[in-house]
Amino acid sequence: MATPRPETAQTLDRGLRLLHLVADTPGGVTVTEAANNLGVGRAVIYRLVGTLIQHGFVRRDRGGRLRLGAGVLQLARRAQPLVADAALPALRRLAEDVGATAHLTVAEGAEAVALVVVEPTWTQFHVAYRTGSRHALDRGAAGRAILAGRRGEDGVVLSEGEIQPGAHGVAAPVLGVDGLEGSVGVVALVPFDPGNVGPRVRAAATAVARALA
Predict the structure, then answer these.
(1) 53-62 contacts: CB < 8 A, separation 24 or more?
(2) Residues of the chain with CATH 3.30.450.40
(3) What does R_g of the chain's alpha carbons equal in angstroms?
(4) How many CB atoms lie within 10 A of CB 175?
(5) Which helix (H) or strand (E) covers residue 141, if one does?
(6) Which residues belong to CATH 1.10.10.10 in the chain?
(7) Residue 113 φ then ψ, to 5°
(8) In degrees, to the nearest 5, what angle opens at C-alpha 131 toward C-alphas 170 and 119?
(9) Which long-range contacts (CB under 8 A, 24 or more apart) does 192-195 make?
(10) Is the CB of residue 188 less than 8 Å from the CB of residue 100?
(11) Cβ contact 173:205 at 8 Å
(12) Which of 3, 20, 131, 159 is the most exposed place for a label (fewest CB within 10 A)?
C-alpha cells in the first residue's frame, strides 16, 4: 500500500480534529472559532468544511454555525449493533449473576448515554433502564466511572439516587478500547455490597473491553 503524502495525512488529521471539535461543542462552532481552536487559517477550515458537508458529516445551521450532520448518525447506527453484540454476553452474565440491571454506557459530548441494557430474568423486581437514556457525565456511577477512566483509574464507582430516586449504582470504566469512552455498571433498587459486586462489575468491564478490542 502506498504511503500517503505528508500533506494528505495532515489534511485528514485536520479534518478529523475539526469533526471532533464540532462533536464536542453542542452549540456548534463558527469558522473563526474552529480556525482559532485548530491553529489554522479560515481558508483551511472552509476547505475542510466543504468536504465534510459533501459527505454529510457536518452541516451549517441557520446561524452559520457548524454542527454534526446526519452522516455521523448513520455511521453510529451501523457501529452500535456491532458494539452491542460484542458487549451482550458479558452484560448478560453480570445481570444474571448480580440480579440487577446491567448496562454499557458511553460518553457522548458532555453526556453519558446507555448504549446497551440487559435486565435480569429471575428477579421479581428490577430497575427499568431504557437504552438511549442519557444524563450528565458527572452524575451517577456510570458517568463518573467514564470520567475516572479518562484519568486512567480502573476502580469502581458507587452512586445512590443521583439519577433516579432510590436507585443504587455500581460502575467501572471500560479501558483500552480506542475511540470508546465507556463504563459497565449495574443499577438496583437496593444497596449493593461493594466488596461483592464491585469485583464482578470490574470483571465485566474487562470482558467487554476484550470483546471490543
Answers:
(1) 57/19, 58/18, 58/19, 58/22, 61/28
(2) 82-212
(3) 20
(4) 17
(5) helix 140-150
(6) 6-71
(7) -125, 130
(8) 60
(9) 192/98, 192/100, 192/158, 192/168, 194/156, 194/158, 194/170
(10) yes
(11) yes
(12) 3
Amino acid (1-letter code) at residue 114: A
CATH class of 6-71: mainly alpha
CA distance 130 to 89: 18
- What are the strands, taking DSSP E only, across the chain? 58-60, 66-68, 101-108, 111-118, 134-136, 157-160, 168-174, 182-188
Fold classification of 82-212 (topology level): Beta-Lactamase (3.30.450)
Buried b (16+ CB within 10 A) or exposed e, 187-204: bbeeebeeeebbebbbbb
- Write out the DSSP string of 180-209: --EEEEEEESS---HHHHHHHHHHHHHHHH
CA 113 to chain centre: 6
Q: Which residue bears the cell 500533506?
A: 7
Place of cell 452491542: 84
